[in-house]
Design goal:
By secondary structure, this protein is α+β, with helices and mostly antiparallel strands. 37% of the residues lie in helices and 26% in strands. The protein is globular. The two termini are 21 Å apart.
Length: 360
């Protein structure tokens, strides 16, 4: 663990761990637990799970007042890849994160600490996926690329159906009358079926799959606040999603289906069943995650009655550096994407995690 940097009365403190808990782990947990803008991706559980599964060291930039009390924090994973370069990412493999702070002055100090950490480590960029937008030297706003989708859950199934626009509602009604079944859980069988289904889905989209141990690490770290829901046809998994539960919100995070899923309307059943399952767990809100503007997933979520909310990210670049490109829709990767779709699944599952762990 590395520590350094003092700037009283607000002190940006830089910590790093590669599997071992931080010395002020309890303070981190307590601060994230009460901060109104904290997400699961700010939690120590998430950050330690990512480090355990991928080996990417997590550095924690914190601010403290003169009495030593935490007033801000920012977890940053040092993502390294021979293909995509390296960056400090807040947080790794997440769709959220960024700076948590008591006020804008503290947020500015934390941003300064993040840039200083990148410079000290020789890292060319810092990527923040949410939170206050720094405006100091080297920082740039990135907007117009992603949108988030979230809304309140209805009180029961009938009300939930009525909340879905008419055309999509008809698709849901049809699959509710089909013979497809739904299972939920966290055991080895659910994990195996989820990974096979998800890996098939992303291979068919032309992107490498994340390591299986990433999903296992997150499930183990979050306990009852994470689980898997799988749609089955005669016992065979056809669609599956791993979800997080955070402060009354369900977040379907890693989901996909096999080639037959669309014909069977398995995704329609999966998300409607997840709404029902989340209500039973006491959730009142459904966070459909982010999608790139203008893509199929963006339109799909709108079809469910979710209104897109623009997401603004921030990036710090060292002088003379350019942003790393990890967008599979980029023209740079078009040939690789088309070739990946043709790989046998066994090959994609063996090679994919070696590549995907560098996406962060």
């Amino acid at each position: 663990m590395a520590r350094g940097g003092v700037n009283a009365p607000i002190r940006p403190v830089k910590d790093g761990f590669s599997g071992a808990p931080l010395s002020d782990a309890a303070a981190w947990d307590a601060y994230a637990a009460v901060h109104p803008h904290a997400t699961p991706f700010h939690s120590r559980a998430w950050c330690e799970a990512i480090t355990k599964a991928t080996g990417h060291v997590c550095h924690l930039v914190t601010a403290r007042d003169a009495g030593g009390t935490l007033t801000g924090l920012l977890p940053l994973h040092h993502v390294r890849s021979p293909l995509f370069g390296h960056a400090l990412v807040g947080s790794g493999f997440a769709v959220g994160g960024g700076i948590l702070a008591n006020d804008p002055a503290v947020a500015a100090k934390v941003a300064e600490g993040a840039a200083a950490m990148a410079q000290s480590l020789g890292v060319p960029s810092v990527e923040l996926r949410g939170g206050p937008q720094p405006d100091g030297d080297g920082w740039h706003r990135e907007e117009g690329v992603y949108a988030g989708f979230a809304r309140d859950l209805a009180s029961d199934d009938d009300a939930e159906l009525l909340a879905i626009p008419r055309k999509q509602r008809a698709e849901v009604r049809k699959v509710l009358e089909s013979g497809l079944t739904v299972t939920t859980g966290r055991d080895a069988g659910e994990r195996r079926d989820h990974y096979r289904t998800y890996a098939t889905s992303v291979r068919n989209l032309g992107t490498p799959v994340f390591p299986k141990k990433l999903f296992d690490a997150v499930l183990d770290a979050f306990g009852d606040d994470a689980d898997i829901l799988t749609v089955r046809q005669d016992g065979r998994p056809v669609a599956s999603v791993l979800s997080l539960y955070w402060r009354g919100t369900v977040m379907p995070f890693w989901g996909g289906g096999i080639a037959d899923a669309r014909r069977l309307r398995a995704n329609e059943l999966m998300y409607f069943a997840l709404m029902r399952h989340a209500r039973a767990k006491g959730c009142t809100r459904f966070d459909f995650g982010r999608s790139k503007v203008g893509t199929g997933p963006f339109s799909y979520k709108k079809n469910w009655g979710f209104e897109p909310q623009p997401l603004v990210y921030a990036r710090w670049l060292a002088p003379g550096e350019t942003p790393r490109d990890t967008n599979p829709n980029s023209a740079k990767y078009r040939l690789q994407v088309n070739l990946w779709k043709k790989l046998p699944l066994w090959a994609a599952n063996r090679i994919g995690p070696l590549i995907a762990r560098g996406l962060g």
